[in-house]
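Cross-posted from the bioinformatics board.
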Amino acid sequence: MKNVTIKDIAKMCGVGVSTVSRAINDNPGISAETKEHILDVIRENNYVPNNSARNLKRSETETIAVLVKGIGNSFFSPMITEFEKIIQEKKYTFVLQRVDENQDEIDVAMEIEKEKRLKGIVFLGGYFSHSKEKLGKITVPFVLSTIGMTDSMVHREFASVAVDDEKESFKIVDYLCSLGHKKIAIFAASPDDESIGKLRMRGYKKALIKNGIEYDENLVFELTSGNERYSIKSGYITAKKMLKSNVECTAIFAITDAIAIGACRAIWDENKKVPEDYSIAGFDGLEMTKYYIPSFTTIRQPVEKMARETLRMLFQMIDSKKRLNENVIFPGELIIGESTRGI
Amino acid sequence: MKNVTIKDIAKMCGVGVSTVSRAINDNPGISAETKEHILDVIRENNYVPNNSARNLKRSETETIAVLVKGIGNSFFSPMITEFEKIIQEKKYTFVLQRVDENQDEIDVAMEIEKEKRLKGIVFLGGYFSHSKEKLGKITVPFVLSTIGMTDSMVHREFASVAVDDEKESFKIVDYLCSLGHKKIAIFAASPDDESIGKLRMRGYKKALIKNGIEYDENLVFELTSGNERYSIKSGYITAKKMLKSNVECTAIFAITDAIAIGACRAIWDENKKVPEDYSIAGFDGLEMTKYYIPSFTTIRQPVEKMARETLRMLFQMIDSKKRLNENVIFPGELIIGESTRGI
DNA sequence: TTGTAGGCGTTATCAA
DNA sequence: TTGATAACGCCTACAA
């Protein structure tokens, strides 16, 4: 069965293609009568306009794409929901585009930008290590949202929204210190990890210094490598490793909530308790952390607010047709849960 | 800055467009020399072929789309991961397409089918209540995966993969009975919910009957309505409601793991314990349920296997160019966790 | 080995 | 109010 096209419909209705086009797109200059007839025929024949052809022809469409690296990450879920809501309110079309772990997000962006005639792009998550030059190849407005950036790669000339990973992890480790903990382990990414892993590690170190605690390499536990390094399982494995090592410590800073959850379970499985034997602090503020038993002490990233701000900036750029180079930093919220205690 | 097209590149290189096309697509019939030169020029000018134009021209592409309703649902994450892996192994392109809560998945399918010249479609999740007629409008092979279907809507003429929701929930409720529970509450969707909610409720009733327990409406707690009805929060709220109601019961069947988690926390917050005061059973087998404290008794759906089978069927249809009307039902695995106990 | 030209399915312009 | 027709950017016979 051949795909039915606008031409077929035109023929069947005994009209020209442009008339059919008018009917489809609610364009003026067509009598109600013919329009209705055409629409009927369209329905009968299951005609669906081909978007590729449309996009090809149209010079601009009101659509915004959100590119996500690691779409399974539940941290992004509420952000995506918020993005969708706002974009739809603005009568724009929302396109969610997954980016493969081994794909370059900028390449994907350039492709989809042309394909869909985008008005704007949001880069969500991932660890941006792209040169300004490469980012500059993107011709529509875009915002980097929730993307960990070390100073060396802060993109002052590009719009971005994030929390200060270093400062926030400083905050939570400092909190652990204030509870009297001196031996604080950290579950962190490998040293060559150029992203949030690095930043959160830095905050950890700074907090130790501020509290007069010496940095001890034996308290640094490296997560499993690979894409799953920030997962629950990774936390579980790492905690087991720690427990086997017999290193003495009273608190653990897991650089991600998921890791914290895995760690908590591992500790439980070894007949130890949180927070009695180990205090655990996470990072991100996943919804889950409120419901876990014990609930977690963590840094909650204001995801909805961040999503809103991301789009505010993006739409401002779209409307004003000007580049923006704001780097908006949101404060994280220290949530005190049941997973930590004073000693 | 005008978008650079294949023509521009051709002009810049002093060659024809077909030569450029050959260079881009690794087509034969082009000297290594010119090819290299062209590729250089392309790189210098950030030329990216327009996919809309490509799709328009191509009559077929090796791509498969997975349509997901409720993409935030972590139940789908491992399935999607598996889909991606297999599709890439087959050298196909994988497209993940979100379907809005208020969007009709078949409409979306028909659009994207034309737009991308798909080879096949996977419908993932959601609650299919579409007429055979409407499904028949889709012209490429497709498989319904993990889609709850009551008998009235079993699509015998379409390929599908799922667990038997009714049977599996029977299994787990029967297990609760075998532990000695007589008063088993269920946290279920509203009675008009035409999907897994209904099916899992049926299994619950059957298990009661088998065990000579009378069905008691007072033990049925309706979840919050709306899209979030199967969420953690919904479980939390419903459990609170139950606890306030002072209804007597010793076990709870939450029709979803997420609901079970919320319920567990609510019980904890009311100074009761799981499983001492209430046994709780979930459904789905989310990764989380292994790490929660207590770990959950649940029905694990073999998500990876189901994903593989889904694609096996799909590729078989693609390769043989024949419709398939297998309805493959996978058994769920009763996982016995710490959230239930005998009385 | 390379170039020209036609067409993929739309939309938009211009006449009628 | 309508209908031809020229793009949109690319691929692919077919010709050279």
